[in-house]
Design goal:
Number of helices: 4
Number of strands: 0
Number of domains: 1
Helix content: over 70%
Largest sheet: none
Order of helices and strands: HHHH
C-alpha cells in the first residue's frame, strides 16, 4: 500500500509535471494579453521549460515572474523589432498581391499569397 501512495511514484511525478505545465501555460496566456509582453512571456516560458527539462527545482509562478522581470527590456525590444518586420512583410505581400503584371504575378506566386 505504501508504494501506491508514495509521492515518488511515477504516476504522482507525471501528474505533478502535468500540473506545472498547465499552470505555466495559464500564466503565459495571461501575460500575452497585452501584445507588448508577448516576447517577454515567450522568453520566460522557454526558460522555465528548459529548467524543467533539466530536472531542476522549479517553482513555476515565482520563477516565471523572476525571469519575466529579468528579461523585460531585452525581450520587449526584440519582440518590437520582430513585430515591425512582420508588419512590413504583411504590407509588402498585400501590395504585391494587388499589383498587375508579369513580375508581380511571379512575386505573388512565390510568396504563396498570389492572385
Amino acid at each position: 500500500m505504501s508504494k501506491k501512495l508514495n509521492i515518488d511514484n511515477p504516476f504522482f511525478q507525471s501528474m505533478s509535471w502535468l500540473g506545472d505545465i498547465i499552470l505555466l501555460n495559464i500564466v503565459f496566456v495571461a501575460c500575452c494579453f497585452p501584445v507588448i509582453t508577448i516576447g517577454t512571456s515567450c522568453t520566460s516560458l522557454y526558460r522555465i521549460l528548459f529548467r524543467m527539462r533539466r530536472k531542476e527545482s522549479v517553482y513555476v509562478i515565482r520563477d516565471f515572474w523572476a525571469v519575466f522581470k529579468e528579461e523585460w527590456k531585452q525581450s520587449t525590444v526584440l519582440w518590437a523589432a520582430a513585430g515591425i518586420a512582420g508588419v512590413i512583410l504583411a504590407v509588402d505581400l498585400y501590395v504585391t498581391g494587388r499589383m498587375q503584371g508579369g513580375l508581380w504575378t511571379a512575386l505573388g506566386c512565390c510568396s504563396c499569397c498570389g492572385p
